Amino acid sequence: MFARCRPLSCSFVLALAMVAGTVEARTVYRCERDGTVSLSTAPEPGSRCEPREVADDAVSLPNLWGALGIVKGTLYERIEDGRPVYGTRPLPGSKRVLGFTVQTPPPPPSAPTPAADSAPARLDRYPAQFRAAARRAGVDEALVRAVAHAESGFDPVAVSPKGALGVMQLMPATARELGVQDPFAPAQSIDGGARHLRQLLRRYGGNLELVAAAYNAGVGAVTRHGGVPPYAETREYIRRVLALHARYRAALSAAGG
């Protein structure tokens, strides 16, 4: 079934084209449910789905999976409103069409960020908001500040390539779950981020490595890998957050906080 795909480069779109018989510009939906990601040609019932446009000449998809390396999956077909819909999640009534293997592309290069061990603590950024949010959530203010520093550098209008927003870089779905109405409002973002950290601290029994891993890669990735995911980005993120956490604890202590 994969004769037309180069080894380890057959994308979901090309796999779909092999079944549908055409390659054309199309919308692919990236759907999340219970910490797992699937791709589909239509929104999945019961999942949170976001449309992504894919060019008609695309050889491979951008990295919609949220994982690095080789991803193996299965393409399923179901009938919806009298027409076939293809996706990678085995929904009720679907049938298996074919299996595929995808080598996810590397993330795009980004501007270098200051090394964690040379980044000074920024106690001047939103001091009242961090103090109040940490107290309400019952979490370490130094940890909330460290995550904000690592995530956005305290930029209230930051938007990541993956769609994370604001000071605490909350994903839209996470912001909705936390009741954050405006993720670009610093007070709301910091409050939501502090409450999200409280949830993660409870889930992982205070293990800061797992908390940072889940904040960066998602709870689903930590669950699938039984601990810290083997992503270079996530491992560097953990190192940076832990270094910044120690720096903010020392700075707050020296400032009498």
From TrEMBL:
Residue ranges of every copy of the Transglycosylase SLT domain listed in the record: 130-227
Domain of life (superkingdom): Bacteria
Region (Disordered): 101-120
Keywords from the UniProt entry: Signal
Range of residues in the leader sequence: 1-25
PROSITE patterns to which the protein is assigned, alphabetical: TRANSGLYCOSYLASE
Family: Belongs to the transglycosylase Slt family.
Protein's name according to its UniProt entry: Lytic transglycosylase domain-containing protein
UniProt lineage: Bacteria, Pseudomonadati, Pseudomonadota, Gammaproteobacteria, Lysobacterales
